Hints:
- Strand 1 and strand 2 form a beta hairpin.
- This protein is about 20% helix and about 30% strand.
- The chain has 2 domains: about 1-60; about 60-125, no CATH class.
- The chain has a 4-stranded antiparallel β-sheet. The chain has a 3-stranded antiparallel β-sheet with strand order 8-7-9. Strands 5-6 form a two-stranded antiparallel sheet.
- It is α+β, with helices and mostly antiparallel strands.
Amino acid sequence: MNLIWSIEHNAWWRAGWAGYTRDPLAAGLFxxxxxxxILRSANAFKxxxxxxxxQMVFYAPSVDWEKARCQETTGMIGDHYTRCxxxxxxxxxxxxxxxxxxxxxxxxxxxxxxxxxxxxxREKEK
Length: 126
């Protein structure tokens, strides 16, 4: 079973093709045939949607939001990466990369989702 991430809407597909949600627990679960149908339809002219296996979403690392800081790299000083270090509000995963999900602030997450193929796996409750 898969969840469908809408790159265009920056959110998960709901069940029954009934809109979008940022909450993966409210997202629809689609079997392989339905996933293929959605991707074929939505990606006819450009890539707008991506399938994400449910195991990847629901086993995202838990986060202590009071202590979590953005892990996005903002540059290098010498041989060392520097981190954004703003308060983290989401956990993201880059599709197609062999790396673990990690915490990000809203600004870095927005950039990574919009420009680098990341999906939001978990959000801090407001």
